[in-house]
Specification:
- By secondary structure, this protein is an alpha+beta fold.
- The chain folds into three domains: 192 residues, Phosphoenolpyruvate Carboxykinase, domain 1 (3-Layer(aba) Sandwich); 270 residues, Phosphoenolpyruvate Carboxykinase, domain 3, CATH 3.90.228; 84 residues, Phosphoenolpyruvate Carboxykinase, domain 2.
- It contains 16 helices and 34 strands.
- The strands form eight sheets. Strands 1, 6, 7, 8, 9, 10, 11, 12 and 13 form a nine-stranded mixed beta sheet that branches. Strands 14, 15, 16, 17, 18, 19, 26, 27 and 30 form a nine-stranded mixed beta sheet that branches.
- A hairpin with a 5-residue loop joins β15 and β16.
- α2 runs antiparallel to α5 and α15 packs antiparallel against α16.
- The protein binds oxalic acid and manganese (II) ion (MN).
- The site of oxalic acid (OXD) has 7 residues, from α7.
């Protein structure tokens, strides 16, 4: 008798009518075969799905060019579908579950005719982890099948974990005809189901990532008492050899990947990488918080990545002797057949194709690589991978950091007074938008805990969940806020990148109770003498400016926070409003 999984896959095939069905095992040998198919048989916008890059310099690396209208997450076409609109909240686009299904069903009907349906059984999390979740995605494009093979643990172990159970994540994906008018990313959290059509872009199409591991998982976390967060996970080793595990939430394309594999400029400090995008946080058997990275790879932003800004990522990208690496929408150096993007090095090669495969003419003033061009690469290639990466229990958490891209006002680092004040500092977070989504770039928007585009339910309930969750575990981690991006006279005040270890050091000194701090309305801030600046050429005046809190600058911010919180009406927890009042009075007094 067919299992629930086989039955579900057959139903998807009956609807989409592929010519062939192929069950993926996730092996490297299979990736090579799928890449050959993508090179020879499948087309996107008239182009083959993959181009081989210079394997001497970039082992196992391939280039993919997406449809020019399909280069980033499309938040306006992303829906969370519950029977009641209130359950999706003002933070989500909502469509009634039945209406959504009827609408999208028509688009899926026969959409795989002439194509292969790839069946991808995968696990988010280590196969032996009690926190791991099995899922299956079907898709009709080799690029998504190969990418999911890099980003998840795919194959036999996932099938074993699903067995005859009905309890697995379900994802139906097709690139459809790539027409943005017929593009929808629909989530049905109560059914553990995602249906996505019309896009091959990472966040819209690799359903294990944002769709399942954040939107659906955040809802599962609400039901089951855990958190799914848009956070990197690192272990920071101090000169004594002690390792503190830290989580950090930043909006998309704000440097999470760089921080996740930071090359320390302070002797004796070292950062170990566990994840660069998503953390699932559970209460462990000893009552402490533990985090796992459900993913197995990085889907990072290429522009700006270089030996100077992120040497460990450059090593990761070139280490692909065992695993496949993909580049999406970067430029191509025709002389050397290498990938290229703005910021990779100082020179712009002469003979290049831009991200769309057209001759690159610098005088036209456009970038050669798309600003949201990406790499997809296995975490196993990362030279700083933590020895705990495969620990099924996860790592115990000492601190949580919230950060946004703010050119004004927000201090380099501050520490919340307690858990609830920390939840408030995450809830009031704002950040300037980036090219990771198709919205306008550089506009300030409130992005609580960097989860605005990813929380799969009403964020008022999400804040309440954070508050309630905080009452259930021992040794609550301290909560910090950081901002690497503050400017004065249009110049960044802080050097960032590897120098951010100095901020991590202060955070650890606070955890280890080695230094005091000054109380301000936004939390405790360092005495500037407690920030280690040896070997760093930064004027004291700039350090002071990094921590300046000017009352008049905050009026607009306070109003904006109040306006944002008010959108949640009565559902907003009173505890958050109480923190807001304290914060406002403190800033205005
Ligand atoms: C991502 C994103 O791809 O946040 O990680 O957009
Ligand atoms: Mn992300």
């Amino acid at each position: 008798m067919a299992t629930a999984l086989e039955k579900w896959v057959n139903e998807q095939a009956e609807l989409t009518k592929p010519d062939k069905i192929y069950w993926c095992d996730g092996s490297e040998e299979e990736k090579h075969r799928l890449i050959e198919t993508g090179k020879k048989e499948e087309k996107i916008n008239g182009n083959p799905v993959f181009f081989q890059l210079n394997h001497k310099l970039w082992p196992n690396a391939y280039l993919h060019r997406s449809h020019p209208s399909d280069v980033a997450r499309t938040e306006h076409l992303t829906y969370v579908c519950y029977p009641e609109k209130e359950d999706a909240g003002p933070n989500n686009n909502w469509m009634g579950a039945e209406e959504a299904k009827a609408k999208i069903r028509k688009l899926f009907d026969g959409c795989m005719k002439g194509r292969t349906m790839y069946v991808l059984p995968y696990l988010m999390g280590h196969p032996d982890s009690p926190y791991a979740k099995p899922s299956v995605q079907v898709t009709d494009i080799s690029y998504v099948a190969v990418s999911m093979g890099i980003m998840t643990r795919m194959g036999k172990k996932a099938l074993e974990r699903i067995g005859s159970s009905e309890n697995f994540g379900k994802g139906l994906h097709s690139i459809g005809d790539l027409n943005p008018e017929k593009r929808f990313i629909m989530h049905f959290p109560r059914e553990n189901l995602v249906q996505s059509i019309g896009s091959g872009y990472g966040g819209n199409a690799l359903l294990g990532k944002k769709c399942f591991s954040l939107r659906i998982a955040s809802y599962l976390g609400l039901q089951q008492g855990w958190l799914a967060e848009h956070m990197l996970i690192i272990g920071v080793e101090t000169p004594t050899g002690k390792i503190h595990y830290i989580l950090a939430a930043f909006p998309s394309a704000c440097g999470k990947t760089n921080l996740a594999m930071l090359e320390s400029t302070l002797p004796g400090y070292k950062v170990w990488t566990l994840g660069d995008d998503i953390a699932w946080i559970n209460i462990g058997p000893d009552g402490r918080l533990y985090a796992i990275n459900p993913e197995a790879g990085f889907f990072g932003v290429a522009p700006g990545t270089s030996i100077k800004t992120n040497p460990n990522m450059m090593k990761t990208l070139k280490a692909g002797t065992c695993y496949t690496t993909l580049f999406t929408n970067v430029a191509l150096n025709l002389k050397t057949n290498e990938p290229w993007w703005e910021g990779i090095n100082e020179d712009t090669p002469e003979n290049m194709l831009d991200w769309q495969g057209k001759e690159f003419i610098p005088a036209q003033g456009k970038t050669a690589a798309h600003p949201n061009s990406r790499f997809t690469v296995s975490i196993k290639q990362c030279p700083t991978i933590s020895s705990e990466f495969d620990n099924p229990a996860g790592v115990p958490i000492s601190a949580i950091i919230f950060g946004g891209k703010r050119t004004q006002m927000i201090p380099l680092v501050s520490e919340s007074f307690d858990w609830i004040n920390g939840v408030f500092s995450g809830a009031r977070m704002g950040s300037e938008t980036t090219a990771a989504a198709t919205n306008k770039v550089g506009v300030l928007r409130r992005d609580p805990m960097a989860m605005l585009p990813f929380c799969g339910y009403n964020m008022a309930d999400y804040f309440r969940h954070w508050i309630e969750f905080g009452k259930k575990f021992n040794n609550p981690p301290k909560i910090f806020s950081v901002n690497w991006f503050r400017k004065d006279d249009n110049e960044f005040l802080w050097p960032g990148f590897g120098e951010n270890i100095r901020v991590l050091k202060w955070i650890i000194d606070r955890i280890e109770e080695k230094v005091g701090a000054k109380e301000t309305p936004v939390g405790f801030i360092p005495d500037i003498n407690d920030i280690e600046t040896s070997g760093l050429d930064i004027p004291e005046e700039n350090l002071k400016k990094l921590f300046e809190i000017k009352k008049d600058e905050w009026t607009e911010e306070i109003n904006d926070i109040e306006k944002f919180f008010s959108r949640f009406g009565k559902r907003m927890p009173q505890e958050i409003w109480k923190e807001f009042e304290k914060f406002k009075n403190h800033l205005q007094s």
